[in-house]
Amino acid sequence: MIRIVSTEKGEVTYRLERKSVKNLNLRVKGDGSVFVSVPKRISVEKADEFVKAHMDFILKHKMRIDKSSKMTQQFFLGEKIERVIKQGEKAFAQFSDKVLTIYLPASAFALSEDERKELIKEITACWEKKMGQELFPQFLNKAYQRFRQRDFIIPYPKISVKAMSSRWGSCTPAKGKITLNCSLTEKPPVCIEYVICHELAHFLQQNHSDKFYSVLDKVMPEHRDIKRLLNN
User: Fold this and answer.
1) Is 187 exposed, middle or buried (0-12, 13-18, 19+ CB in 10 A)?
2) Looking at residue 60, what is its pLDDT?
3) Residue 10: CB partners within 8 Å, gap ≥ 6?
4) What is the per-residue pLDDT for 214?
5) Mean pLDDT across the chain
6) Are 65 and 28 in contact (CB under 8 A)?
7) DSSP per-residue string spanning 79-133
8) Is 208 helix (H, G, I), strand (E, B) or coil?
9) DSSP state of 89
10) What is the mean pLDDT of residues 199-217?
């Protein structure tokens, strides 16, 4: 049942639920909606009075939710998207219509600003890792075909994705493996392909000698321009 009550501090719409409970309970969800559960014998008038008596509590939580929903800029495959912080039942990320929504549990809003930022960073990194695991294999295939077209014979590598603090990628030729930084999901597709080409070139030249760059020149002649784009 949907109820609307008016008070001196404003109007509140809430959902009333009758349950087998002893006490009246009020909850403000992460999207700002208000739920009230009451014992089956309680009248709607008493439920309305209960809501009015808790207006300060409701307004406080709504203001906190509005403040936490401030949009910040994020990048995905080189394009600007919006990142929104909202309250939810648990910590997770959801991407839709160029908006990345980071849901934080209510307990996260009791943390210091620095602690909350670190949590948001971790959730974002988890989402980027998931996206990298889904998307990077197709870029690996494109990069690998560049080597095949130039008659460079290398094993088709395994790929892993993780957060890396100082490198875009790394490789272990002996194990036929390359590792990519999950933050590469923020970069344009051509930058992702470049990093993979760079790591694949190490399968042939395990250093940064002239021979190494000779390989890159052949498989990706524009690699110097792309590197500048990547680092910007």
Assistant:
1) buried
2) 81
3) 55, 59
4) 96
5) 90
6) yes
7) EEEEEEEEE-SS-EEEEETTEEEEEE-GGGGGS-HHHHHHHHHHHHHHHHHHHHH
8) coil
9) S
10) 95
Q: Give yes or no for a contact between 17 and 39, defined as CB atoms under 8 angstroms apart.
A: no
Residue 64 · residue 109 · CB < 8 Å: yes
167-202: pLDDT as tens digits: 999 999 999 999 999 999 999 999 999 999 999 999
- Residues 105, 52: Cα–Cα separation, whole Å: 26
How do the domains of the chain map onto residue ranges? 2-65, 68-128, 130-231
pLDDT bracket for residue 69 (50, 70, 90) = very low
Convert the pLDDT of each residue in 73-110 to its tens digit.
789 999 999 989 888 889 999 999 899 999 998 888 77
Neighbour count for residue 228 (Cβ, 10 Å):
9
CB neighbourhood size of 34 (10 A): 21
Tokens 């272990």 — which residue?
Answer: 172
Pairing relationship of beta strands 10-19 and 34-39 according to DSSP bridges? parallel
Fold classification of 130-231 is: Zincin-like (3.30.2010)
**The predicted structure's pLDDT at residue 28:** 85
**Cβ neighbours for 158, distance < 8 A, ≥ 6 positions apart:** 175, 176, 177, 178
Residue with tokens 């790591």: 199
Which distant-in-sequence residues (6+ apart) come within 8 Å of 160 by Cβ?
177, 178, 179, 180
Q: Max alpha carbon distance in the chain (Å)?
A: 84
Which tokens hold the place of 88?
């939810």
The token duo for 25 is 């309970």
Give the CA-trace dihedral at 209, 211, 217, 219, to 10 degrees: -120
Of 54, 49, 9, whose CA–CA distance to 34 is shortest? 54
